[in-house]
Amino acid sequence: MASSSGNSSSGSPPIQNSGSEEDLRNLMDQRKRKRMQSNRESARRSRLRKQKHLDDLMAQVAQLKKENGQILSSINVTTQHYVNVEAENSVLRAQMMELTQRLQSLNEILNYINSSTATATATAAVGGGSCMFEAEEFQHQGLVMIGI
Question: How far is 31 from 25, CA to CA, in rounded Å?
Fold first, then answer.
């Protein structure tokens, strides 16, 4: 059952099938030493694999931290742009409201002038041409008052 390659590490001659206890003990010791050496090498390989895995994870953590920093910077820039656009929109809304009110005032003045002109023209047709001049003068003064 026991066979040997002929290269004993202890320098003893190849083991023969003599069945002596000493030969069996030497064979068991040799197998035990081989098993221990194999276990040590396996444990060393396992430690190296674990260390490599740990190094890879640490590199991945560093890369993810870098990417998170870039994303955070991008978010901050985008947020600042949003705030700027919102401020500009508020100014534009206020200007729009002011211009809408001015337009409404101008339209009211024009409606008043047009209704006065229509009344003056009707009166001028009945009473003479001098009223037409007065309506035009009034219209000119109204436009001067609003800054046109």
Answer: 10
Asked if 15 contacts 24 with a C-beta cutoff of 8 angstroms, the reply is no
- From CA 137, how far away is CA 6, in angstroms rounded? 133
Cα–Cα separations (whole angstroms), residue 70 to 54, 56, 76: 24, 21, 10
DSSP assignment of 31-86 equals HHHHHHHHHHHHHHHHHHHHHHHHHHHHHHHHHHHHHHHHHHHHHHHHHHHHHHHH
pLDDT computed for residue 119 by the predictor:
79
Check residue 20 and give left, alpha or beta (phi > 0: left; psi -120 to 50: alpha).
beta
Residue 60 CA from chain centroid, whole number: 20
Residue 13 has what DSSP assignment?
P
Mean pLDDT per 10-residue interval, the chain, length 148 residues: 47 56 92 96 97 98 98 98 98 97 96 85 60 52 53
Tokens coding 99: 């211009």
